[in-house]
Write a structure and sequence with these properties.
alpha+beta, 8-stranded antiparallel β-sheet, two-stranded antiparallel sheet, 10 strands, globular
């Protein structure tokens, strides 16, 4: 069963949405601009923290160890579908309003601290061409063959410290990695029992 996220609706037009208004499947060249969550899209200069707050509600900043320069993330949780969405911005806290959206994570894993959950109402939300619950075959049909396939369980056994990062096996046992050529951008599609359990898209490592 495929699951889409549902969060707070936004009444006014979302200026930072995909140019077409639809986050269509990526073509042969990995186009991170197609990866959107609730019309909040990567590689779009108009997507700001204000847009995220206006659409999903305000949230306290979270600083994760695996983010470069301790960039702030903002986490939202849908208790009805038990799915979390997190938006990460480049830059330091006191200047983050000027920095672009750097990453989007959507997952079935409990990543939002209980004391920092958004109080936003339910509304419509989808994530680019990939959906939680999608089959491995469907992922390949949408994005093509991955750059590589990682064994998240073996990786974590080799380096237990990554258990507290977005590389953790808690997000999925297997990872289809799609990397942008000549760039630092990537998409990690985590799978559990052959179904998508986490999507992590980022413009930077």
């Amino acid at each position: 069963m495929r699951v889409k996220l549902y969060f707070m609706q936004f009444i006014a037009p979302v200026l930072c949405a995909c140019a077409t208004g639809i986050c269509a499947a990526a073509d042969a060249k990995l186009d991170l601009g197609k990866f959107c969550a609730g019309e909040i899209c990567l590689e779009n200069a108009k997507c700001t923290l204000a847009d995220v707050f206006q659409k999903f509600g305000s949230s306290a900043a979270i600083y994760r160890a695996d983010d470069a320069k301790q960039a702030p993330s903002f986490c939202y949780y849908d208790p009805n579908r038990q799915i979390s969405a997190e938006f990460t911005f480049a830059g330091e806290k006191n200047r983050m309003a000027r920095y672009p959206l750097e990453g989007i994570t959507v997952t079935t894993a409990p990543i939002c601290p209980k004391n920092l959950l958004s109080s936003g109402k339910s509304g419509g939300m989808s994530v680019g061409p990939i959906e939680i619950g999608m089959s491995t075959k469907a992922v390949v049909q949408k994005l093509g063959e991955p750059s590589r396939i990682d064994d998240a369980v073996a990786r974590e056994k080799k380096d237990p410290k990554i258990a507290d990062t977005r590389y953790s096996a808690k997000f999925g046992e297997q990872v289809y990695v799609y990397e942008k050529k000549d760039d630092l951008g990537f998409v990690f599609v985590f799978l559990r029992a052959g179904k998508v359990s986490t999507i992590w898209a980022s413009t930077s490592e």
